[in-house]
Amino acid sequence: MTKFESVLIIDDELPIRRLLEISLNAAEFKVFQSKCGKDGIIDVASHNPDLILLDLGLPDMDGIDVLKNLREWFFKPIIILSVRSQEEGIIAALDAGANDYITKPFRTGELLARIRVAIRSSQKKEKEPVIFVRNLMVDLINHVVKKDDIIIKLTSTEFLLLSLFVKNQGRVLTHQFLLKNVWGYSYMEQTQYLRVFIAAIRKKIENDPTKPELLITESGIGYRFAE
Questions:
Q1: Global pTM?
Q2: How far apart are alpha carbons 159 and 138 in whole angstroms?
Q3: CA distance linking residue 114 with residue 78, whole number of Å
Q4: Average pLDDT rounded to a whole number, residues 43-64
Q5: Which domains, and CATH codes, for the chain?
Q6: pLDDT over threshold 60, residue 43
Q7: Omega of the bond prior to 105 within 30 degrees of 0, cis?
Q8: H/E segment holding residue 112
Q9: Does residue 187 or residue 108 have the better pLDDT?
Q10: Strand runs labelled E in the chain
């Protein structure tokens, strides 16, 4: 892990933010702070931190809603730091896309260790040039896709779509996220356009395109690539 990775703290309690800032600075992290959910979302877009520490009890919006909003476009680690300790709440946060969950009060040493692990895992994943999913191989550097060791020809747009899916395996990508990242903001309502390309990709990578096992539809939301 390189030095000076950045962490954004989204928490309305000033003493907690100060404690975290002191601990993170001492561990050579660059720190940003937000005191509410709306500011936090804006600050994530502005600073693109390596990791987010997110409180659930925010004054303007529930932390789960902040988490869901971020997970439409931010894929680096998010660790929940909250007084909520009920199992249902922890499961809900993890299901919504959190990488880890730590309850307050917390031990600083343990928190720093979990932050380092999450960032190392994220950086390793970003650097991985070749991804294998069942009988599919996707080389992100050389733009090569193989199924059962046979090269599959994809258009540049099809490869861009597929690469988004394989880099986010198991996570639902919304229609708007896919349209924005592949075609731009002016196409964000063109869901039919997206369906045409999804169908084309399925014909090339699925054993049975009518019963997809890799590129799965999440009705009314988007698509999920199998892990």
A1: 0.62
A2: 9
A3: 11
A4: 93
A5: 6-126 (3.40.50.2300), 130-225 (1.10.10.10)
A6: yes
A7: yes
A8: helix 108-127
A9: 108
A10: 6-10, 30-34, 51-54, 78-82, 100-103, 130-133, 136-139, 144-147, 150-152, 172-174, 215-218, 222-225
